[in-house]
Amino acid sequence: MTNAPNPRPTPVGDAADPLDFSGSVVLVTGGSRGIGRGISEAFLGHGADVVICGRNEPDELPSSGGREARFVAADVRDATAVDALISDIEATEGRLDVVVNNAGGAPHVDAAEVSPRFHEAIIALNLTAPLHVAQRANRVMRTQDTGGSIINIASVSGVRPSPGTAAYGAAKAGLIGLTQSLAVEWAPKVRLNAVVAGLIETEQAHLHYGDEEGVAAVAATVPLGRMGTPTDLANACVFLASPLASYVTGSTLTVHGGGERPAFLEEAQVDHEDCS
């Protein structure tokens, strides 16, 4: 830990734009599709130089305003690959200002039936990999006058029961705890925060919710009346990485449209309108 303070924020209303990331370098793991793509395009739109990584190069890179992300092949579950990834960014970009640990996910399975190897793989992707990336990024950020910001994409599966994705939910719960601990260890130069994603509609929504009717039915359970979008998550990340959040670290920002209505409300034998 160093004693150099994290840079003070740009005052709101100042001539400078606190959401202008021109000259900043942002790494988004798993940044080629879904939530990751939305986050990559948002930072590009705010002027950042964006690097994405994954095991396979996408057919089309994220772009915005005529600017395009740069792809580096890396399996973030492999600590050696992560070291090579960050070394590449150092050598090519010269700095690293923001990391969004977005890579993750899990298929729906019965925890009683799948192999121990499956559980280990899910935890490696959703918990251990973000730790590898954060640890290596911290070594770069702590040498910079402006420090850095690391944002971990967590999930509501980590803060409520997650049947069918038990190992995933446990890993995301661990990621929230990890974020809080590293925020203390690496302050004041490096800020760490977690974004807890609710029900998000991406191009793979059908794998979790079924056809359009199923997606609509699930969306109707959300108090705000819709599922989230990658842009909703991206906006939260841009805020947390910006000077507007310079005093925010070790925090969890929940982006879930109000959550999910408690099941008992549908079964309770009470006219709730009469109780108002």
UniProtKB/TrEMBL annotation:
PANTHER family: OXIDOREDUCTASE, SHORT-CHAIN DEHYDROGENASE/REDUCTASE FAMILY (AFU_ORTHOLOGUE AFUA_5G02870) (PTHR43639), SHORT-CHAIN DEHYDROGENASE_REDUCTASE FAMILY PROTEIN (PTHR43639:SF1). It comes from Candidatus Neomicrothrix subdominans. Residues 24-203 form the Ketoreductase domain. It comes from the Bacteria. InterPro entries: KR_dom (IPR057326), NAD(P)-bd_dom_sf (IPR036291), Sc_DH/Rdtase_CS (IPR020904), SDR_fam (IPR002347). This is SDR family oxidoreductase. GO terms for molecular function: oxidoreductase activity. Keywords: Oxidoreductase. SMART domains: PKS_KR (SM00822). SUPFAM superfamilies: NAD(P)-binding Rossmann-fold domains (SSF51735). Belongs to the short-chain dehydrogenases/reductases (SDR) family.
